[in-house]
Write a structure and sequence with these properties.
316 residues, mainly alpha, three-stranded mixed β-sheet, 12 helices
């Protein structure tokens, strides 16, 4: 716990401090979210808020590497940072030039493969209640999960404060589980992620002054999927595995539902529309703040269940 709060504060202060400069830069260089598509803004809004999250995250991690001896630059940490940089770079390019859905997906798949196949960050095996070895499937299964969560967060980023708030709530749950299990690396990385996102959220809650953009949504999704796997799932109980994925299950479920509907209606699954949960709630008359309260509440419940199950898996 001694390192979680300082790391989060460093990331939060730096991220929040950078946002006014990012807003100015985005306006001057054409990084603007137009009206329409799956977004609900009624006027152009600056993008690149996710860049501030990334910088805050990286700065906090750098300080942690320098100050805390328990936290070192292992191949796992390097793998997470390198692969996340690939995703963030692809997001910046998309925010400027609007890459096709296929190109975006290819970048995410490449980053996930770099993490799992090159750096060897993958789910290993389950030891309770039944011994299950992932074997050759460990890397591809891990990569698929990371890609799913990354795209899910990208897809739900259509309402002020939604993706960022879910990321913060899920990140806090992962920090708690990491501290329970003595996973220093996971706790520090998640603390930096939560802090950076909180700094951004000050400017993204309704009415948003800036959007996180693709660079933010895909970076958050990728990190929330990759960080727990990086340290906690090399050997775990079935309950622990379930607990690690539960905080991210809401955006994954919503995106899966939307994709299934598009397939059923013979529509392009990559075509942006307004069929996500927050769009449906808006059509029902919910205000943005009521939608956030409802979705945050659901995610909190899922995260509390995850923490309880994880504590049970530790036998505490």
């Amino acid at each position: 716990m001694k390192y979680v709060i300082p790391v989060a504060l460093i990331a939060m202060v730096l991220s929040a401090g950078l946002i006014p400069f990012v807003i100015r830069f985005a306006r001057e260089h054409g990084f603007m979210a137009p009206v329409g598509g799956r977004r609900i803004n009624d006027h152009p809004v600056p993008l690149l808020g996710g860049a501030a999250i990334c910088v805050g995250f990286l700065a906090a991690v750098a300080v942690a590497l320098w100050v805390f001896p328990e936290f070192g630059m292992t191949s796992t940490v390097a793998g997470v940072l390198v692969s996340a940089f690939i995703v963030a770079l692809g997001g910046v390019i998309d925010d400027k030039y609007e890459l096709s859905g296929g190109v975006q997906l290819a970048i995410i798949i490449f980053a996930a493969c770099v993490l799992t196949f090159f750096f060897g960050v993958k789910a290993g095996f389950i030891n309770r209640p039944w011994p299950i070895s992932m074997g050759w499937a460990a890397a591809p299964v891990t990569a698929i999960w990371i890609v799913m969560v990354t795209k899910a967060f990208d897809c739900i980023d259509g309402l002020d404060g939604l993706a960022g708030g879910i990321a913060v709530i899920s990140g806090i749950a992962i920090i708690i589980m990491a501290l329970m299990a003595g996973r220093t690396t996971t706790a520090i990385l998640e603390a930096a992620l939560v802090g950076g996102t909180l700094g951004f959220l000050f400017f993204n809650l309704p009415p948003a002054k800036i959007f996180m953009g693709t660079v933010g949504s895909q970076f958050l999704g990728f990190m929330l999927a990759a960080i727990p796997i990086a340290e906690a799932l090399k050997s775990a109980t079935l309950v622990a595995v379930f607990s690690a994925v539960l905080p991210a299950i809401l955006p994954v479920f919503d995106t899966s539902r939307v994709v299934a509907g598009r397939i059923k209606d013979h529509k392009n699954i990559g075509q942006a529309d307004k069929t996500h949960l927050h769009h449906k709630l808006r059509d029902m008359g919910f205000t943005d703040w009521k939608i956030l309260a409802l979705v945050y509440g659901i995610n909190i419940i899922l995260c509390v269940i995850a923490v309880i199950l994880f504590k049970m898996s530790l036998g505490k």
